[in-house]
Amino acid sequence: MAMILDAFLGNFKEMLTKMAEEEVGMLFGVPGEIEKLQTTVVYIQGLLSDAEKKQTTESIKNWLLELTDVMYDADDIMDLCQIKAEERSERRGSFDLYSSKFGCGISMLSCLRNPIFAHEMGTKIKKLNSRLNEIYKRKSELTLNESRDVFEPSNVRPMISPSVAPVDIVGDKIEEDAAMLLKLLTSDEESVKENVSVVAIVGMPGIGKSALAKKIFYDPEIEREFPLKIWACVSKDLKEIKLLQCIIRGAKGDYGAAEERSELVQKLTSVIQNNKFLLVLDDVWPDSQDVWNGLLREAMIGGARGSRVLVTTRDDDVARFFQPTTTHHVHKLSEKDAWSILAKQVALIESDSETLKDIGLELVKKCDGLPLAIIAIGGVLRERGKDILKWRKISESPLWSLYRRVQENLRMRADYRALMASLISVTPIASDRSAT
């Protein structure tokens, strides 16, 4: 896991460097926060090697799990900026869907033209900085020492970011899944009584839920079928007012100076009325699961028949809460598709494959079929070059044992949530009489 986290942190540091170069912090209204984040990320990278040596302690495992959660939140921030940049560039007719995040010359500044969005991102950056700083400060109580001997993270300039444009996730399975979901989203289901129906995509962290949703979101068939396309990252720290404003903007509406829930719901109702839309609610957590039934449904149920809501979540219980007509589970990649992604990330040609495929397949297996992990490692390998000895050194690193342990812990956490939900649903509530 430390290797994957090192790659994630390196990718995030690359994004921060671009932000600093364009003085994005000033536009966010948080001058100096980007530079602080850069410094903290470098310091935390230096602790990962020592964390491997001390992985037997529960406190170290929990520290790594907490760091993993924060990096997923950082990924959400980059996702949101990417979506905004793509929407702006798409309107100008200049966006290349076959580019990675903020690739092909797309400026970070292009997602910050709206001052409200810039302020929202500034708040998220500041909160992220605070969380990472707290994680770093715990190094003393955990007796973690800084070292850069294993992967030399300070010398690695990642070529990709952890969240990628849809094309970076390749293979037969994602094509099949996308085709199936496209057909489902664009067909008129006679059995559905309401104008708006929900489809859910469920899978563990890093499995490619958002990548699949993006692939669908930018498909030409979706462009033709839905006059309104709206993408909203929900995540853990849901702010209802901000979400409503985001969706109104995405639906090409104007909420003016409205900041009250009732006003915004009314404006959203007006914008959506009789229009056919696709709304993607990306990365919905248990704390935010009532976002549809408790907040958005009232305003959006007046959309034209055939309108769809596409939800991505890591939690089956969250998906059920939306009462979807269909729930699609994203599974781990096959060896063939996983190798295709790695080969694409490292830009291998046929002659390279002859010498590097065996060791590449070893690395793919260690990534456990998770696209996000494969892409992150692909960035590290690409920087190392097509050198079989360097690839073997990475494959033989003891840090992979920690990755397996943390992945198991993540699965156990998900199983625990499901178990607790089941227990709550079947455990009778004691009456006052039985309690006396």
Automatic annotation (TrEMBL):
GO-annotated molecular function: ADP binding; ATP binding
Residues of the Disease resistance N-terminal domain: 9-92
InterPro entries: Apaf_helical, NB-ARC, P-loop_NTPase, RX-like_CC, Rx_N
Transmembrane spans: none
Keyword field contains Repeat: yes
Domain NB-ARC, residue spans: 193-347
Protein family per UniProt: Belongs to the disease resistance NB-LRR family.
Name this polypeptide is given: Disease resistance protein (CC-NBS-LRR)
Biological source species: Rhynchospora pubera
